[in-house]
Amino acid sequence: MKREITRRDFLRLSAVTAVGAVVAACAPPAPTATPVPPTKAPAPTAVPTIAVAPPVATTAPQPTAVPAAKYQEAPMLADLVKAGKLPPVDQRLPKKPWVVASYEGNGKHGGTWRRAFNGVSDRWGPTKLVDRAWAWFDKNLNLVPRVLESWEASKDGTTWTIKLREGLKWSDGVEHTTADYAWWYKNELNNKKVTPGVQTIWADPDKQYAKFEALDKYTAKFTYKKPKPMFIYNMVRGGQGGTASAGPITPSHFMAKWHEDTTTDKAALEAEYKKRGFASWEKFYVDRAQWWYLNIERPHLGGWVAKNEMAKELFVMERNPYFFGVDPEGKQLPYIDKVTHRLFESQEVKNLWVTNGEIDMQYRHMTIADLALYKSGEAKGDYKTVMGIGAGHVAMQLNLTTKNKLLNEFFNQRNVRIAISHAINRDQVNQLVFNGMYKPRQYSPIPMSPQYYEKLSNAYIKYDPDTANKSLDAAGYTKKDANGIRLHKDGVTPISFTIEGTDQAGTPTEDAALLVSKDLAKVGIKATYKYAERSLYTAHYTANDIEAAWWGGDRTVLPLVPEAQLFRGLNADRPWAVAWGFWYTNPQDPNAVEPPKDHWIRTIWKIWDEEVSVEVDPAKQTAAFKKLLDVWATELPYVGILGEQPTPTIVKNGFKGYPPGMPNDDPTGDEQFCSSETYYWDDPSKHMG
Amino acid sequence: MLAYIVRRILIMIPTLFLISVISFALIQLPPGDYLTSYVAQLRSMGDNIQQEAIDAMRDRYGLGQPVYVQYFKWIEGIVTRGDWGQSMEWQKPVSELIWERMGLTVVLAVFSLLVSWLIAIPVGVYSATHQYSMPDYAMSILSFVGVGVPAFLWALIIMYFAQTQLGMNVGGLFSQQYLEAPWTWDRVVDLLKHIWIPGLIVAIENTAGEIRTTRANLLDEINKPYVELARAKGLTENRLIWKYPVRVAMNPFFSTVGWSLANRISSITLMSVVLSLQTTGPMQLRALLSQDMYLAGSFLVLLSTLTVVGTLISDILLAWVDPRIRMEA
User: Which CATH number applies to B94-321?
Assistant: First the structure.
């Protein structure tokens, strides 16, 4: 009896202690004080003491001149200014600020803008709100100055003189000048440890960097040997790190202390990088100093600065008191005080946040497949689904360089590709899968694009199985097997290929792929859609082990940015010319194959290399690019199916500045196209959360 | 007994070593490495990253070294400095990322373990003592449904119901204002307001099985002669059932503590992805997908350690509770 009681006691006790021990072992370590970013901005070192000169209308095609009165302070910052912790707004703005109007009237200061993101790999969402650089697009997709005051190119396009805005400041209050650019040029671009390889955008075709000169504090000159017509486009986005390089917009006063050549205390730098587990200073420099969302002390030029690291569940950004833009009434931008990104793991949770009205304005992660859901939640969630026009296409790539010899021969006949295009019932796919919201078209620039080329958009899109059958017969593929599948010219092998894609079963794009493969079966071609996990897909196209792909196509608003790689067959993930693309980029690549001497892809490359990429005059450049598109319209390298995809953006009622019908593409910043600083709440007091 | 415990603990060392080797090897199995997926991601964003830059990064992360060198460097850091390595995707030391998540996961697992025992034992006992009655049938049906419906589906259903019918804010373990707040009493209350959904879901999935176990075991015991004898001696039915056969029937609960914790952690993983809970699950899944090897490896090792420790506890408990267990190796 006694023994039993001991055992029971032990049992009770040990169960409790065991659970306790496990909990204790796994509890977070004592909450070490999380580094709180200093709320007080460092006192700027060079604030002009005299009153700022009245703003002068800028040279750029911008809205009307600013009234001569003082600029208006955001209420959120007013107390800091009163307390002397921040200089007044007039001293924080450049002499000639960037004047920009909202697309929906003048706004009000204040409020919070709630968004959702899914982790550090989703950094592009928040980045597009703040990656302010030299220039941006107006409504008609013309380039206008943003960080720059103006620029000028020499007639031959080799020399570019840029003028910075005088008094424009980094988010820590230090002035942004050509000294920053000179520092970047010397210590980052031309330092082989920091920048291994050659950054092509700053180099001539001979891989030598352009010459850089700082003419004065606000004027700089880049001199190339060959024309560089896309020079300004290099710095339309970017400039905040996170990509291969931040470019010239580098806060040298901040970065200098991480750089071996410029630090004043080498021992401290060495101690610091070793403490953080880096093997050398340049590894530390590149890893730590570039990521604006993890290295929040790094100053930048965007409208909001990070208040905590993106590795958290709620990523918070607050207004940059030194932002260089004002609205036509002189209110310092951005209008909105605070932007939050909340972490989600599943689309379902994000969708419930949308329908519950917990997302204020966002396109990223919204898909046309969920349109019905968004619409059904509009009343309860108090938002609207604003439709823009996407660059994306539903398309199929036939790999013209596939290792399968018979298929290679088959795909490389122009008439076969045209027959395949005619065999697809685009209207049916559109109606059955997408409720008719897309437009049947080939992969090509969309109508709002300066490079829109109707001939390509409409090439061979008519559903015409008879013509398709006749073309295939004429091409010599007349024999069929017992299942009605045509035979290759060897007379025994049926024409069958796999279309690989990353669209999973049940998604609309997968449904579309299945319909297309049924259409192809009707003309005697067996095409099977196969889902491949992304990394498997990557492994396949990298090794040129892919027959056909289902990857769609985007970048059709401004196809020239960056460098029309898709149209030249250089994006191996849209694998229509994998091995040829490898050859063009690097003939030594083990998977590279040289295209035949008189092949039309050489015409495409020639037009690009000798005309488009060296033409300075935008009109002539567009004309040259249309010549390239004409080769596409003739040869049809890519089987486009549907395009002009409608894109849903969730916009809370009362959130202004983003009208319907805007272009939606990566190079134009997606839903940040209309300059996110100009988005505002019509009643900010209701959105202070 | 002491020798037995010491022996079990010594066996844990090679077990954990093997686990860490296997975890690390598994992560290395898929083709490519973290940079492959990172570069693919950059390229799909239109970033024309050059081979030299990729090589420099591979060197920076030490990915060019042989696998065993990478492994020993990692283990050395853990054993000598408590340094679990650097997460490549998050650009932060692993140890800064995982502890709070491990804590939440364990709290959730233990919470659901207690909830399901609290439900399973009385219900199972009732079912067994009232075999083939209407309530027994009803509970059997319910528990089969519980066993059959996967946790992520419950998560979707309950989440939808909670939002549309109860008007609750779903997704995550905290309301937005407490997400980045320091630990205060209000934050704990907020956590409790949210934890019941996942706790309930994990409990539903596991309780059902436990009800069946309790019922079956108790049915085996209930007809044994010692029960008859106790009844003949005039013990009240309640006292009799709870004092003797139920205790024997509970043996499986103790012997399975180890893997029922592990089980719960894996159902928490799937459910956390669906519900966007910041437990270890979603981060671990993503680390595995992007081949962020130190992060993924650390999760695997820590969670396996938990299982191994759980098994040790259950062994000790069993040895103490059940005199029939032999103490030999």
Answer: 1.10.3720.10
